[in-house]
């Protein structure tokens, strides 16, 4: 009996499970059995591996072959096991030394000609390998840069099975010619992207080229600009209501620009999600820009929160992780789809249960909702609206109370006047100026929260805010009165307190004053209370 083993990774959502690939050769009628709960695409690897080995100049063993994927209870799918299966077979056939591959982690698809094709999810797979103690991984050459993002792991990128056999056998490595660049799409990269999956997802156009939308482009809208700054500084969710053309989408598109840049840890998390979803930009293994996701209002439940056939895949809430999820025309979304956001808004992750398994996907995003005041959009304008009061109430009631209770800031975006649009002084503060204030406010919050698991005000539980960091006596009087009147829930009171802390951080105060609480109430209810807005604006 001849036996060899090596390792690969099975992805469950964006988390990896180390899989031991074992090959056993025994005398008998030539056959190839693959066991260990493989899916259809993995079962087909038997034909791909056999052809790749034969076309690499290595004889296929004419014996009874059994390849096992352990643990057998974990569902396994995709073509990323091909390379490990081929090497395990060659190790059992003693074409390569089994000891050379026992501690190697291998990820890659094999073409029939022996070329190693890239697959999605290399970064989370290598992260799982590193956490399991593996220090050497073999990946397709096209994804070697992505795998190299994981510290402490030695990465070998190969173009073909022939090259890998030569490396493992200490033989001269053959020079595999690259495909000629004739202007056509590279077929080797076809498996890294999902056609149509990137609509409304990713980073804003021009962001990487230094042409990101500037907040100075927004005319007027002082209250909405303040709310945008508060949302960025404290991580608070935002609701913008106003007529068409008032600037709601413009404001939302400029929110990523004033958010602090991703940390190294955050960039790896975002890249892992985008890698699994097949949305990594070509030639850019690391996503270091704040994600921005704006799905259409016809989005289904799986496309928004994750799901699909077989193992659930990331949805828009996960693709917006560490970034912004913008739902324009929010009342036009399905009520069930909107209410599905309630769990990730509270927990920062989404749990999707399917018959094939349960996955936990990261989903800590900043939600921005935008809506017209009525079905025709002209309710807040002078004349022109023919919607009945019942139609207006029914339209806005599509945003459920439990969902809106989780939104900290609610702003009425009024139509821009002629003087604000073309008059002198119409240009507001730039993104650079506002982003500097946001970074300073976040630094103050991080200093205050040092030694805790939280970094921004929206993450701090209400009980901790009320008991650990005290306000001045009487500062919460207005908010407490609103709660007694039934205008605020207990969750709403905590969220007002969080916004008040963010306003204090923006103003450079050590703790919120009474005017900060009043301003937070105004931003939450949309009812003017004569508060002085952040940055000294009325």
Automatic annotation (TrEMBL):
Pfam families: ChlI, Mg_chelatase, Mg_chelatase_C. Residues 172-192 are annotated as: Disordered. InterPro entries: AAA+_ATPase, CHLI-like, Mg_chelat-rel_C, Mg_chelatse_chII-like_cat_dom, P-loop_NTPase, Ribosomal_Su5_D2-typ_SF, Ribsml_uS5_D2-typ_fold_subgr. Residues 172-181 have a biased composition (Acidic residues). Residues 234-417 form the AAA+ ATPase domain. It comes from the Bacteria. Gene3D superfamilies: 3.30.230.10, P-loop containing nucleotide triphosphate hydrolases (3.40.50.300). This is YifB family Mg chelatase-like AAA ATPase. It comes from Streptomyces pathocidini.
């Amino acid at each position: 009996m001849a036996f060899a083993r090596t390792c690969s990774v099975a992805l469950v959502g964006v988390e990896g499970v180390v899989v031991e690939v074992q090959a056993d050769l025994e005398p008998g009628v030539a056959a190839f059995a693959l066991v260990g709960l493989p899916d259809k695409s993995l079962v087909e690897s038997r034909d791909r591996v056999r052809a790749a080995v034969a076309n690499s100049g290595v004889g296929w063993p004419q014996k009874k072959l059994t390849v096992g994927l352990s643990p057998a209870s974990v569902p396994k799918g995709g073509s990323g096991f091909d390379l490990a299966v081929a090497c395990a077979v060659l190790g059992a056939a003693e074409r390569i030394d089994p000891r050379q591959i026992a501690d190697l982690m291998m990820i890659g698809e094999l073409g029939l000609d022996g070329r190693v094709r890239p697959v999605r999810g290399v970064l989370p797979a290598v992260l799982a390998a590193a956490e399991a103690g593996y220090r050497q991984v073999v990946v397709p050459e096209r994804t070697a840069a992505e795998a190299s993002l994981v510290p402490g792991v030695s990465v070998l990128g190969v173009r073909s099975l022939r090259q890998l056999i030569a490396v493992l056998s200490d033989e001269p490595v053959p020079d595999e010619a690259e495909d000629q660049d004739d202007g056509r799409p590279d077929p080797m990269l076809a498996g890294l992207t999902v056609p149509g999956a990137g609509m409304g997802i990713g980073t804003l156009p021009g962001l990487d080229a230094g042409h990101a939308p500037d907040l100075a482009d927004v005319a007027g809208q002082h209250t909405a600009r303040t709310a945008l700054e508060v949302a960025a500084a404290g991580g608070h969710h935002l609701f913008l209501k106003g007529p068409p053309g008032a600037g709601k989408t413009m404001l939302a598109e400029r929110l990523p620009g004033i958010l602090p840049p991703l940390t190294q840890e955050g960039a790896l998390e975002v890249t892992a999600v985008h890698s699994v979803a097949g949305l990594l930009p070509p030639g850019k293994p690391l996503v270091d820009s704040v994600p921005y996701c704006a799905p259409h209002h016809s989005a289904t439940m799986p496309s928004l929160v994750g799901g699909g056939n077989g193992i659930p895949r990331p949805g828009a809430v996960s693709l917006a992780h560490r970034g912004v999820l913008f739902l324009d025309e929010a009342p036009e979304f399905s009520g069930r789809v909107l209410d599905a956001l309630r769990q990730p808004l509270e927990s920062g992750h989404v749990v999707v249960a399917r018959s094939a398994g349960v996955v936990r996907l990261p989903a800590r995003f900043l939600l921005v909702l935008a809506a017209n005041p009525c079905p025709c959009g002209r309710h807040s304008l002078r004349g022109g609206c023919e919607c009945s009061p019942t139609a207006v109430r029914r339209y806005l009631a599509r945003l459920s109370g439990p969902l809106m209770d989780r939104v900290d800031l609610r702003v009425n975006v009024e139509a821009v006047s002629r003087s604000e649009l073309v008059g002198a002084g119409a240009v507001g503060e730039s993104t650079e100026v506002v982003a500097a204030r946001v970074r300073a406010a976040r630094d103050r919050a991080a200093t205050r929260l040092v030694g805790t698991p939280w970094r921004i005000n929206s993450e701090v539980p209400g009980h901790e805010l009320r008991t650990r960091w005290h306000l001045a006596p009487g500062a919460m009087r207005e908010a407490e009165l609103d709660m007694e009147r039934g205008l605020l829930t207990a969750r709403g009171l905590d969220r007002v307190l969080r916004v008040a802390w963010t306003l204090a951080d923006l103003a450079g105060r050590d703790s919120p004053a009474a005017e900060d609480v009043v301003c937070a109430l105004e931003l939450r209810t949309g009812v003017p209370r004569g508060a002085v807005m952040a940055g000294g604006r009325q």
